[in-house]
Amino acid sequence: MTESAGSRDPATSCPSYPGTKENTTDMRVTHGAPLAPMTTLGIGGPAAAFVDLHDAADFPSFVELAGTYDDEPVCLGAGSNVLVSDLGCASAVMRMNTRGVRWAGETADGRTLIEVQAGHPLVDLVATTIDEGLSGMEMLVGIPGTTGATPVQNVGAYGQEISDTLVEVTAWDWALGRSVTMEAAACGLGHRTSVFKGSRRWTLLKLVFGLRRSELSAPVTYRLVATELDVPVGSRVPLSEAAGAVLVVRRSKGMVLGCCDTDRRSVGSVFLSPEITPVQAERLRARNAPVNEFPDGSTRVSASWLIRQAGFELGAPIVEGVRISSLHYTLVADEGASAAEFTRAIDIVQEQALRRTGVRLTPEVDFVGERPSDPSSGRGRATSWPVQA
Fold it and tell me: How far apart are CA 99 and CA 84, in angstroms?
């Protein structure tokens, strides 16, 4: 390799050009690979070293590569819940592209076990379970990302979440320097959170789920889905019909990738529905706010409602290149968007919602790399971790 801007590949004594490639065993390493095209927001700078992992057998080579950089390694999945720094990542970045579903027997209580590679697309897994007559994931249809990302924030929608079916995960523990198997109970799964969320410690490699054979879905608990199906809330319908109704509802909100050209650069919900106190719940219910109880025991109010109450309109611009979606109360990116501006838009929405409603919104998106500096402090915040969104 040849010299480039005085920079050197820390994995060797040879300098390297941004964008150059080398082979580590069968694993190809690209230096200076742009990360923006690997995310649904289309934002972000380059990776110091990038690996597209298709074969799980090559993962030890990535571990070796990651050890040659000072910064923590980053694991991307489909890039559907991440905001990459404009400066990129000064570390090794891996895109998890391992695929495969294997039937792994049955539990004592009759659930069918399936083992899934972390890079397997969630939409494909959900389709497989429906085709095989397995109930437990049908309401998760249309959610982008990889299966390995799902426990990170306990992905859920329309009455189902990953904690309902997850049995165990196999992960690389960067602190211990070895692979570990963790039962679901050890994963700390809560409302859009887990021990993996925001942690640098683990990269998920494969997962085991337990699902029940059934021609019918779980009870339909969301009014919009029940209305689309023309059935009472609480009804059970054929798996494919439940999934079809959920897709219609998701598309109406712009929450299916590619369903709306104007809102295609999106991470879905940018904000969590925040947990509120009993006093806040009483006050907000008096304003007809959608306040709901969740399986983890928390009481939460809709983030979309808070954004609307804060005075934001659909399609309204917030900062350069960032606006409210034309279909749903979340943020999307347009031409000219940057990580710095998207972060500023998040702050603006947070501050205005707090001022108008008294409730603070919490961002759901994962920040990767060096987060943009706060102009008032002159400091940036390093928030790089092994995410798998």
Answer: 24
Cβ atoms of residues 324 and 315 within 8 Å? yes
**Token couple for 332:** 């999307």
Q: Which residues are bridge partners to 382 per DSSP?
A: 370
Q: Is 97 in contact with 54 (CB distance < 8 Å)?
A: yes
Copy the structure tokens of residue 287. 């304003």
DSSP secondary structure letters along 115-128 = EEETTSBHHHHHHH
d(CA 41, CA 23): 29
Active site residues: 192, 269, 364
Instruction: Give residue-wise pLDDT tens across range 260-291.
Output: 677 889 998 999 999 999 999 999 999 999 99
* pLDDT 10s digits, 111-127: 999 999 999 999 999 99
Query: DSSP secondary-structure letter at 160?
Result: E
Alpha-helix residue ranges (DSSP H) falling in 1-112 = 59-66
* CB environment 270-297: b (16+ within 10 A), e (fewer): bbbbbbbeeebbebbeeeebebeeeeee
- The tokens describing 308, both together, are 């609307």
pLDDT value at position 380?
37
Check: CB of residue 112 under 8 Å from CB of residue 212: yes
Residue 367 burial (CB count, 10 A): 23
**Contact predicate 242/220, CB 8 Å:** yes
